[in-house]
Design a protein that fits this description.
Length: 224
Amino acid sequence: MNKSIRNILTDLEHVHENLLSLSDDIWLSIDHNDQEALNEGVAFKKRYNEKMIAFGKLASAISSLVQEYTNIQIEEHQVEPWTSPRESRDRFIKDMDKLQPHSLDESFTYKRPYGFVLEDQGYKEIVTWRRVYELFLKQLAAKSPDTFTALCENPDYHSNRGNPTFSQDPLKLRSAMPVTDGIHAESNLSANSIRDLMKRLLETFGIPETEVKIYLREDRDAEE
């Protein structure tokens, strides 16, 4: 039963992520030089985004309720990070070397994460892009707390309409994900939107993109 519940919770997360990716796909398929098609696309996106915000909140509430009642978490295994000592790092690298590393220049639409490496730390046994993003942000916050706190006021992380990507007030975000004690991040994001934000954050924190490697679940499953 535990496995079934965990699979259902994971499927719920995947459906949410796939719907966000579908929105990206539809938007990219629109001929932006065709004014009529563009107007129809904008109207569709507006309605779709409203529905997705409502669905995201409901899916999150259902998932939290089930996890709290059953004490079953989405991640079957605790996410395993490595830093020092070198033994742990070498063990992780040996395991992940069997898989193909992917860069942030690729599309991750409809793909599933398994793990990632950022600088001198790696993670595996991940099942959602939201979790990848959460761990990525936590590492940045630990690396440079002042730079991370400043993201809340950084205009590069506000939309043209002034909507923040990071905020100390979770009510200002559509789907607030706590990162540190005082800062939340918008998490209603598709896989490629997370990828784009990761690239922008690396630039803000002065980290080369080559310091990030993404590992996908389909590569891992193919090895088994």
